[in-house]
Design a protein that fits this description.
631 residues; mainly alpha; 23 helices
C-alpha cells in the first residue's frame, strides 16, 4: 500500500481495533471472520433488488424512464406505487454501499498482512466483469455486475492511478472514438477523465495561488469550468442569433459547478475526510443535476415553439407539386405533444414520422432554383457555398424538432421490438439482441460509474471508521440514520410523486424530470436509513432480531442474484414458459415465494459448503487457488 499518499490517508482513518490487529494471510475470509451485519444487510437488499428487477422481466427496458405505467388500477397500482417510492433506487444504492464496504474489508486485510492488494482486487474486478457480461448477454439486460466492475476499476484509478498512463490511455481512447462506429468510446474517455479529476481531489496537494488565495487544483478547475459556462450562457443570451437550447442549461449548471468548486475548496481539509465528502458530494451533485435539468425542461421556453408543423409551400407551382407532402400528423398516444414536422411521401394516421427526411426536404426547398437543361444544379466550389442562404431560426428549430420526433419514433419501434422478442422470440434471438447492445451498455457504464464511485467511497468510510466492523458499539449512530434518513429520503420521493408519477415520452411539461430528480436525491438518505434499520433490528432483543435469518442469503448474494435472473428468464420469457406480462401485484407474490425458497436453499447449502457456487468460482479466480469445497 502507498500509505504515505494523500489518497490512502483520506480513506485510511483506521480505528484502534483494526490498526492493532495481528497479520493474517491474504486468503478468502473465513466464516468466523465475517461481519454478520454486512451479510444481513446484503440479504435484505436482495429482496428489494428482486422486487424492482422483476418488473422488467415483464416490461420493456425502453420504457425504463417512464415511471409507473399509466393504466394500473387497484392492487397493481398500489404494488407499483409502493415499490417505486419505498424501494426503487434505494436498494441498488445499498448494494453499491456494500460493494464499497467489501472493497475496504479486502484493503484492510491486505494492510494487516502486508500483502499486495491492487493485483488481487483487479483479478476480482475482472471476474466480476466476466460474470456481468455473461449475465447481460445470456440472461437479462438489467445487469449491474458489469457496472460495478467498471466503477471498481475507476475507483482504483481514483485511489492509485498515475497521471501519465491515464492521460495516454484517454488520448488513445479518444483517437479510437473517431473511427466510424466507435463513437461510444467518447463516453469511456469522459469517465476516465472524471476519475482523473476525482483523483486530484483525493490525492493532489497542488494549489493555484490567486491574489494570495491558495486554491486546490481540483477546486480551481471546477471554479474555472463554472465561470466559463456562465460566460457562455451570457453570450448565448446576448447574441440575437445565438443558440436557444443551451441558454437555460448553462444558466443553471454554470453556477452549480462553480458552487461545487467553492465547497470543495472550503472543505478540502482535513485529508482523512476527503473520501466520505467526495462520496456524498458525487451522489448529491448528480441528483441535483437531474433535478435542475427537470426544472429547466419544465419551465424554460420550448425551443420548438412557433415552428411550423409542415414545410412552407414554395412559390413556384411546379416545384410545389414536386415537393407535395402529407398533412400535419397527429401525435400518437406515446408522444401526444410531438407534432410532425418532417416531409414524407406517405404517413400512416396517428404515427410519428419515422425517418429523418425533414432536414433533406427542407434543404432541397431552401436551395436556389435548379438550372434547367443538362447543366448541374449547383457548383460545389467555394463561391457557390458562400452564396447558399443561411438557415433561419425556424429552419434550424424545425430540424431539431424533426430529430426529436425521429428519436420518439425509434423509441416506440424499440418498445414494439422488445415486446415481440421477449414475449415470443427464441432464446438465441434474444441473445443476439442483447449482445448487439452490450457495447453501448458498457460505454454507458463509465458515466454511471461516476455515481457508483461516490457510493463506494461512502462504503469504504463505513468500514474504515469502524462503524460497520463493530456496529453494536455504534447503535446511536444507526438510530440517527434510520430516524432521519427514512423520512427525508422517502419523503423527497413522495414529494416528487405529487408532481407526477408517470412520463409520456416527448412531453416536457409534465414535470417528470423534477419528480425523478427529487426521488433520486432522496435515495441516498433512504438507503442509509434502511441500513440503520436493519442493524438496529439485528441488535435488538425482540422478534426483529430474527432478521439474521437473511445472513446466509447475503453470504451467497452473487449466486442468488444470478439465480433470480435465471428463474425469471425461464418463467417469463417467450423462449421458455412464456408468462410475459404478469400483473404487478402478482409479481410481488412471485418474488415472496422465490425469495423464501432462496433463504431456505442458502441455509441448506451453507450447512454443507463454505461458499455459494458462484462465490466459489469468484474466490478461486481472485486468489488463484482452489477454495475448500466442502465443510
Amino acid at each position: 500500500m502507498e500509505s504515505a499518499t494523500p489518497a490512502t490517508a483520506a480513506i485510511a482513518e483506521a480505528p484502534a481495533p483494526i490498526a492493532a490487529a495481528a497479520k493474517i494471510e491474504m486468503v478468502p475470509i473465513a466464516t468466523d471472520q465475517r461481519i454478520e451485519a454486512l451479510d444481513v444487510v446484503r440479504g435484505f437488499a436482495l429482496i428489494g433488488i428482486f422486487l424492482m428487477n422483476i418488473e422488467f422481466f415483464n416490461r420493456v427496458f425502453a420504457s425504463f424512464n417512464e415511471g409507473m405505467p399509466r393504466d394500473l388500477t387497484g392492487l397493481n397500482w398500489f404494488a407499483s406505487w409502493f415499490i417505486a417510492y419505498f424501494e426503487q433506487g434505494k436498494f441498488w444504492t445499498i448494494f453499491s454501499l456494500l460493494f464499497g464496504m467489501g472493497f475496504a474489508v479486502m484493503m484492510v486485510r491486505a494492510e494487516r498482512a502486508g500483502r499486495e492488494f491492487k493485483q488481487v482486487y483487479l483479478r476480482r474486478v475482472l471476474a466480476l466483469a466476466v460474470f456481468g457480461a455473461l449475465h447481460y448477454i445470456f440472461l437479462w439486460q438489467g445487469d449491474i455486475l458489469f457496472s460495478y466492475a467498471v466503477a471498481a476499476l475507476m475507483l482504483m484509478i481514483v485511489l492509485y492511478g498515475k497521471t501519465k498512463p491515464l492521460l495516454i490511455t484517454i488520448a488513445v481512447v479518444v483517437g479510437l472514438a473517431f473511427i466510424p462506429g466507435m463513437n461510444d468510446l467518447f463516453a469511456v474517455a469522459t469517465g476516465l477523465a472524471a476519475a482523473g479529476l476525482f483523483a486530484l481531489y483525493m490525492r493532489s496537494e497542488k494549489r493555484v495561488t490567486i491574489r494570495g488565495n491558495a486554491i486546490p487544483i481540483f477546486s480551481f478547475l471546477l471554479l474555472l469550468i463554472g465561470v466559463l459556462l456562465m460566460i457562455a450562457a451570457t453570450v448565448f443570451w446576448v447574441l440575437p442569433d445565438g443558440p436557444i437550447e443551451p441558454r437555460w442549461p448553462l444558466t443553471v449548471f454554470g453556477p452549480l459547478i462553480f458552487t461545487t468548486g467553492w465547497l470543495s475548496w472550503k472543505y478540502f481539509e482535513p485529508v482523512e475526510k476527503r473520501g466520505v465528502r467526495l462520496g456524498v458530494g458525487l451522489y448529491v451533485f448528480f441528483a441535483l443535476v437531474m433535478t435542475f435539468a427537470g426544472v429547466v425542461q419544465r419551465f424554460a421556453p420550448d425551443p420548438f415553439a412557433g415552428v411550423a408543423t409542415s414545410v412552407q409551400k414554395p412559390a413556384d407551382d411546379k416545384k410545389a407539386d414536386a415537393a407535395k407532402i402529407a398533412p400535419p400528423v397527429v401525435a400518437s398516444a406515446a408522444a401526444p405533444t410531438a407534432a410532425a414536422t418532417a416531409a414524407a411521401p406517405t404517413v400512416a394516421p396517428a404515427a410519428v414520422v419515422p425517418a429523418a427526411v425533414a432536414p433533406t426536404a427542407e434543404k432541397k426547398l431552401a436551395e436556389p432554383a435548379a438550372v434547367t437543361g443538362d447543366k448541374p444544379a449547383a457548383k460545389s466550389d467555394k463561391k457557390a457555398d458562400e452564396k447558399k442562404p443561411k438557415k433561419t431560426k425556424e429552419e434550424r428549430a424545425a430540424e431539431r424538432k424533426a430529430e426529436k420526433e425521429k428519436n420518439l419514433a425509434e423509441n416506440k419501434a424499440e418498445k414494439e421490438k422488445e415486446i415481440r422478442l421477449f414475449s415470443k422470440g427464441g432464446y438465441w434471438e434474444t441473445v443476439n439482441y442483447s449482445g448487439g447492445k452490450f457495447i453501448e451498455k458498457a460505454a454507458g457504464d463509465f458515466g454511471f460509474a461516476m455515481v457508483l464511485i461516490g457510493m463506494f467511497l461512502l462504503g469504504v468510510w463505513f468500514v474504515r471508521s469502524g462503524v460497520m466492523e463493530n456496529p453494536g458499539a455504534h447503535l446511536p449512530f444507526f438510530k440517527k440514520l434510520m430516524v432521519y434518513g427514512l423520512p427525508i429520503g422517502i419523503g423527497l420521493g413522495l414529494l416528487g410523486s405529487m408532481i407526477t408519477m408517470s412520463h409520456i415520452p416527448g412531453d416536457r411539461t409534465d414535470g417528470w424530470g423534477i419528480a425523478r430528480g427529487l426521488r433520486d436525491l432522496g435515495n441516498l438518505p433512504a438507503c442509509l436509513g434502511y441500513v440503520g434499520m436493519v442493524v438496529l433490528m439485528l441488535h435488538s432483543k425482540t422478534v426483529f432480531a430474527n432478521i439474521r435469518v437473511l445472513g446466509p442469503l447475503g453470504r451467497m448474494a452473487l449466486t442468488n442474484y444470478l439465480s433470480q435472473s435465471l428463474i425469471c428468464g425461464i418463467y417469463f420469457y417467450g423462449y421458455a414458459l412464456g408468462h410475459w406480462g404478469m400483473p404487478r401485484g402478482q409479481q410481488v407474490i412471485f418474488v415472496l415465494v422465490i425469495f423464501s425458497a432462496q433463504v431456505a436453499f442458502s441455509h441448506w447449502w451453507l450447512s454443507k459448503f463454505p461458499y455459494g457456487p458462484m462465490e466459489w468460482f469468484w474466490r478461486g479466480f481472485t486468489y488463484r487457488q482452489i477454495p475448500k469445497f466442502k465443510i
